Amino acid sequence: MMNYLPLVFVAPLLGFLVLALSRSRMSENLAAAIGVGSVGISALTTAAAIWQFSSAPPEGGFVSVHLWTWMKVGNFAPTFTLHVDALSLTMMSVITGVGFFIHLFASWYMRGDDAYPRFFSYMNLFVASMLFLVLGDNLLFLYFGWEGVGLASYLLIGFWYKDPANGAAARKAFVITRVGDTLMAIALFILYREFGTLNIKELAVIAPTQWAVGSTLATATCLLLLGGAVGKSAQLPLQTWLPDAMAGPTPVSALIHAATMVTAGVYLIARMNDLFALSPFALHMVGVIGAITLLLAGFTALMQTDIKKILAYSTMSQIGYMFLAEGVGAYQPAVFHLMTHAFFKALLFLSAGSVILAMHHEQDIFKMGGLRKHIPFVFACMLIGTLALTAFPFTSGYYSKDEILHQAYLTGNHDLWLAGLFGAFLTAVYSFRLIFITFYGPERFDAKHHAPHGAHSMDHHIPLAVLLVLSIVGGFIHLPLDAVLPHAPIPEGEHHGGIVPHLPLFVSLAGIAVSWFLFLKRPQIPAALASGGLAPIGKLWKSAWGFDWLYDRLFVKPFVWAAETNKNDVVDSIINVVPASLRGLNAALVRTQTGSLRWYAAVAGAGTCLLIALVAFH
Amino acid sequence: MTAQQLTALLPFFVISATIVAVMLAISVRRHHRLTAFLSVVGLNLTLLSLLPTWLAGTGPVQVTPLMVVDGLASFYMALVLVATLGVMTLCHAYFEGYRSDREEIYLLILLGALGGLTLACANHAATLLIGLELLSLPMVAGVAYATSDRRAVEGGAKYLVLSAGASATLLFGLALIYAATGALDLKALAAILVNANLGQPLVLAGAAMVLAGLAFKLSIVPFHQWTPDVYEAAPAPVTAYLATVVKAGVLAAALRLFHAAGAPPSPLVVKALTILALASMIVGSLLALRQDNLKRLLAYSSIAHFGFLLIVLVAPGSRSLETAGVYMATYLITSLGVFGVIALVSSPAGERDREKLSEYQGLFWQRPYVVSIFTAMMLSLAGIPLTAGFIGKFAAIAVGVESDLWLLVSGIVLGSAIGIYYYLRVISALFVPMPGYERVSESMSWAQSAGGVMLLLSMLLMLAMGVYPEPLFLLARP
Amino acid sequence: MTDFASVPESPEFWGTALYIVGVFGLCALMLVLSWLLGGRSAARARNEPFESGVVSGSPEKLRLSAKFYLVAVFFVIFDVEALFLYAWAVSLREAGWMGFIEAFIFISILGASLVYLVRVGALDWSPQARKARRQREEKQT
Fold first, then answer.
1. B322 and B288 in contact (C-beta within 8 Å)?
2. Which of A145, B82, B85, B327 could form a disulfide bond with B392, CB atoms 3.0-4.6 angstroms apart?
């Protein structure tokens, strides 16, 4: 069953190889055909898998596709096995479905770039790695994909490498996520040491039998896994790389830094839910981190002027919601929100990309304004995306976010619920700030020289239109996750009551109203506040609570200092004894290679004698 | 002679007919492409002729007391033939621009391949010697093929004298054992090696001399010194041949001598083997450490690699026999790739092979495809996971661990650690451009692209072995 | 079975040992005696191999053509190959048709190699003939 499944990642992998080997000699059309087509094949494969899965639900709710055993030595027999269940199918459809439309959009967006094939080769590599990540049945396989997406993310952030700032951003993303990856690797080592397997299914069975709930080791392992998730998903305290990652081309931000890769942490925690069940403390930490991050990111987004950075902070805060949901045990709403978020955030990013191109690569929203008349279609997309983001009724975000807050309330986590509620208010304020400043109000650009120009090609319109529709109807999709993920632990007797389920809606509407008042009706108020008494706070928010500054003082400066103090390499001078002695041995041995036949024959003869002596005498 | 035996000997008939045909073709008309074509077709037919016996699966077919065609023989015959095919392809690209007679090299290589086949099937001391000589003697001429080059002639002379010396030592060793026991059959000899004890001085001295002779051909320390000189002197395809076909053939014979009895050789022989293996691993790796000549570096690396491989002679059982096959196959495909690249980037130069490391500085920026393959092959030699080399090394270490040969296992680890240094040194040289370099892409001519296809195939095969080694293990299972 | 430990006890051992010692002793005795008893005189001519007759010596620059060795080697090789045919000839009946076929193949290969040798000019004795062949071949290609 499902023997065709490997095609889902083989196609983009082949696309990557072909494009990478073409060395940019390929024509743009051919490169686009390969790059987009390979992901299209993946999407079709995924569709076939979903159809087969839903028409004939397999026993136990999952299918294992055993590809091969890598090698077999004693008990060590790592296998390549794909694990397909509702969760991985959801992830697959997001990766390949949304991914396909983003690829299509990118084929329009990147036109004219020198390194067009290179761009698509990286994108294909990313898709293949991400599919590895979600399809692996063991953590080793998952980790392989995990590193693969990290690499692709690094390559794509620094895609325009000629500007050193982009390179620095790529490096920052790589290094900071590496901190999380290291924690996660340690978690894998612990798991393998304790249970002798990294197979996720087996772990889920063995771990509860060997670890007591709340035991130290379980908590430590879960916290380490959380560290990995936090790094990849840009949550506190490893969140600082995501805004810088906006240095990459906008389709990259849409695909990697909004829809798929940054949600890998959410996926990891959902996948390991059996383990997190053993550590209530770690699970609660997931929720707390999510809540704090969503608030911090919300405040920060209020003060940003770069259109992509606003979206980046909003992504951070939305992933915070997903973490919050997982923290209260509401895994299903978390994954649901992951999917709807992928739809509307991809839509928002692609629209933002379209705006940026229309404005001749201008990203500052205060140099835009009144754009709704110039690019009405993009405005519609942006508006729908924003409505979904603020959880406006009947958009996809409404169903998923509401569900999260509702379950947070029902499970008794009222503090988290309050944070989420306030976050919803912030979300409405900052996202409509973006809309009002960009699309309404006076035109703040030089209309003569920089008149906005809309796009008129199908590869621009189709992805936006499809994502637009998905952002609206995405909320009606029912994910059959019951077989994979547990329900939130809602105590008996709790039920929908009174005004609580409707509060998020009111809060959001209030946020929109406040935003309208502050940024459209009376724009002088926020300006006065920012320059007046609230200036220090505004500055703090604008700099994302000064985390970059803090980390610079805490880690970078001491490290540079240590490196400078240790210029003479005290540690290495001890270790250098090894290579030096090897070099000495090498020099001595090289003398024996004289090139003289007589000497060689003599050595061989002496060797024979020695051998005889060795064998024949004891 | 039964039909079954004739079928088993089919590869020998086909390749002998090919040799005669190529010889006659040369005497009718000298034509480079035609000669190459004939040889390649002949080799492919030979490869096909392995199939009937293999498919029949009737178990070992004894053909006279001299030869036996069993699983081991079939596997190593296939290895020899595949490697020879690869070398042929390289020869065609390499010798296209050669000014003097180009056709005889095919004759020499075919003759050597016949020797390799003979060794793989040898079941008797006489066949062993005939095979060994047939395998190495043509290569004396091969090494010195560019007779106008003083270095080549010097290398050929060295190889001739030392190789003859080694064969004589081997023969003397066999004679001593024969004198003591009257055995010439390899199975009987293997049993004698298992039971050798201190009361049999002649047998022990003979065993040591046989070991010395084989160790020379496998370039094991202290019989290794010819290797770098000869590798350097020979044209790149011949070097590839020496590193692959010769080693595969001799390894097959060594396995029959030291492994056929199913029990480990006598502790006395094991002691000698262990010391030889350790010395090879360490000395080979150390010598390669700061080598600036790529061919010499690869020669040292092959010394180290065969040190690693000796572990299978020490450990008994079918498991290590399988490992030997896997290791040999991975090493063979990787070496073909490495020397193939050297041959391909060398051929237009004409005068001397491109072998100095400085000549490879920043080559990636001029020939990215070829250098990518080269890099992959280097990584495989270093034993990085997901390459074929890793599988081979891993299997060897596994055999060592299972048989509790901790000394040898630590030797492998140490040797590999040093190895990573010098392989990475080469790789870094490939990618660091020279100051003031130009990004020019050389076009690939037709003759080169045949070699290029071979390279690409070997790289794909190398990666396939690394990612999905199961079929290889199945094939190598005796 | 050879056993070094028991060798000194075997009766032949002492006889052989005595014989070897005797041979070396006799040689040494003869040399020493002649050295002791013989008269000595030194002169330049005395160190020459032949004290009288033609003055020995050879032109150092004499170059023997490699052709000599090549042809000699061919002769030896074909001679040795012919040896195998003797073995076949005396057992012609016993070898039967199988032997005949094998011998036939053997002779054909020999013939083919002879053709090859002739065609590549290995048997061309004079440099002129080789040069002419070389030119002909170059014209051909």
1. no
2. B327
Minimum CA–CA partner of B200 in chain C: C3
pLDDT digits (tens, 9 = 90+) for B361-410: 888 877 878 888 899 999 999 988 888 999 999 889 988 888 888 899 99
Cis bond leading into B222, ω under 30°?
A: yes
> By CB neighbour count within 10 A (0-12 exposed, 13-18 middle, 19+ buried), where does A383 fall?
middle
Residues of B with CB below 8 A from C141's CB?
30-31
- Which range is most confident: A498-507, B129-138, C5-14, C80-89? B129-138
Number of domains in chain A: 1
Q: CB distance from A1 to chain B under 8 Å?
A: no
Topology (CATH level 3) of domain C66-140? Methane Monooxygenase Hydroxylase; Chain G, domain 1 (1.20.58)
Which chain B positions have a beta carbon within 8 Å of C77's beta carbon?
none
Chain centre to alpha carbon of residue A292 = 19
pLDDT in tens, A145-154: 899 898 989 9
CB contact under 8 A, C115 and B30: no
Nearest by Cα to A231 from A170, A180, A282: A180
Distances from the Cα of B297 to the Cα of B148, B289, B294, B303, B428, angstroms: 25, 8, 5, 10, 15
Per-residue pLDDT tens for B171-209? 999 999 999 998 999 999 999 988 888 888 889 999 999
B39 close to B109: Cβ distance less than 8 angstroms: yes
- Residue B8 and residue B113: Cα distance in Å, rounded? 17
Q: Which two tokens stand for residue B432?
A: 């660091």
**Alpha helix stretches (DSSP H) within A160-272:** 164-195, 200-210, 216-232, 241-244, 250-254, 264-271
Cβ contact (<8 Å) for C119 and B27?
A: yes
Interstrand relation of B61-63 and A79-85 (parallel, antiparallel or unpaired):
unpaired
3-state SS assignment for residue A62: strand
| Interface residue B198 vs chain C (CB under 8 A) | no
Chain B nearest-CA residue for C2: B180
Which ranges in A304-413 belong to alpha helices (H)? Answer: 307-327, 331-358, 376-389, 396-410
Arithmetic mean of pLDDT over chain B: 88
Chain A residues whose CB is inside 8 A of the B212 CB are: 604, 607-608, 611
Residue A588 is part of which domain span? 574-616
A413: closest CA among A481, A337, A489?
Answer: A489
Contact B23 C112 (CB under 8 A): yes
Contact at CB, A615 and B394, closer than 8 angstroms = no
What count of CB pairs under 8 Å joins B to C? 32
Structural domain containing residue B153:
3-476
Which residues in chain C are closer than 8 Å to B16, comparing Cβ atoms? Answer: 109
Phi first, then psi, for residue A483 (nearest 5°) are -75, -20
A140 neighbors A80 (Cβ within 8 angstroms): no
Residue B411 near residue B340 (C-beta atoms within 8 A): no
Tell which B residues from 142 to 161 touch A, by Cβ distance under 8 Å: 157-158, 161
Average pLDDT, rounded, for chain A: 85
Are C120 and B202 an interchain contact pair (Cβ–Cβ within 8 Å)?
A: no
DSSP C34-101: HHHHS-----TGGGSS-SSSSPP---TT----HHHHHHHHHHHHHHHHHHHHHHHHHTHHHHHHHHHH
Indicate if the pLDDT at residue C1 is higher than 50.
Answer: no
B23 touching chain C per CB within 8 A:
yes
Chain B residues closer than 8 Å to A71 by CB? 391, 394-395, 469-470, 473
Pairwise CB contact (< 8 Å): B27 & C109? no
**Residue A352, token pair as written in the block:** 């933002």
Is A346 within 8 Å of A254 (Cβ atoms)?
A: yes
User: Which residue in B309, B205, B216 sits closest to B193, CA to CA?
Assistant: B205
